[in-house]
Amino acid sequence: MRVSVVVPTYNERDTLPLLLRRLAAVIGRPRFDAEAVVVDDSSPDGTGEVAAAAGVELRDVLPVVVLTRPGKAGLASAVLEGSRRARGDVLVIMDSDLSHPPEVVPALLAAVAGGADIAVGSRYIPGGGIARWPGWRRALSWGATRLARTLLGIRVRDPMSGFFACRRPLFEGVEFEGLGYKLLLELLAAHRAARIEEVPYRFDERAGGSSKLGSGEIVNYVRLLGRLWSRRRAQRQEGAVR
Question: How far apart are the C-alpha atoms of 172 and 37, rounded to whole Å?
């Protein structure tokens, strides 16, 4: 299967080259037919130029496609843009700050090759975990996860994960709201019959740059959850009428 790893970036020049080298080591040729698609929102620190240089370095092992957008338009839209330009049958979505270990990507791909439609990098199953998070951040994550599972009826233990692999047709079959960066949550809500497998990984707080979590993202998450809940309720009411 052809694999495209979509990596949105903004001011990630310190971590991106190492990420790409580590990806090349585990999914580069001849192990996989893979590419990395870097979507950079014109980072002022020169991330796009660093990505292009890494692409030259790795061209015989892992092709790197660099898409440069004119301004900062958000992580969700960057992932969606990258998926449209990707050539893979399977899409892997991950952050560029090394909080998502590239060494777990082969396990995600193995889960898809074994029949899963979506393979979720999970922090909340045995073998997974979170390093270097303060108590308030853990509590916020736990509450947001519990809320999503309860309101949307999702069984996945880590529906908030930003690290996952998905068969391309499923990804393209969703009209994403694009609020915040919880694309996996939208995927799970849209494809309730999909086969899901969770793969444990240890989340490590970003090694560089600044966190994307802020009050604006929390508001966007609440808005997204409300829209998905309303959509689910409407579908259930329509099914009851039928």
Answer: 17
Q: Are strands 164-167 and 118-122 parallel, antiparallel or unpaired?
A: antiparallel
| pTM score | 0.90
H-helix or E-strand spanning residue 54: helix 47-58
- Give the list of residues 6+ apart from residue 184 with CB closer than 8 angstroms, or none: 93, 118, 120, 159, 160, 161, 162, 164
pLDDT tens for 101-144 read: 999 999 999 999 999 999 999 999 999 999 888 888 889 888 88
Report in angstroms the alpha-carbon separations of 71 from 10, 42, 62, 95, 140: 10, 6, 27, 18, 30
Q: What is the CATH code for 2-241?
A: 3.90.550.10
Q: What is the number of other CB atoms lying within 10 angstroms of the CB of residue 241?
A: 6
Residue position matching structure tokens 């329509």: 238
Beta strands in 19-139 (DSSP E): 33-40, 64-68, 90-93, 118-122, 129-131
Domain boundaries, the chain: 2-241
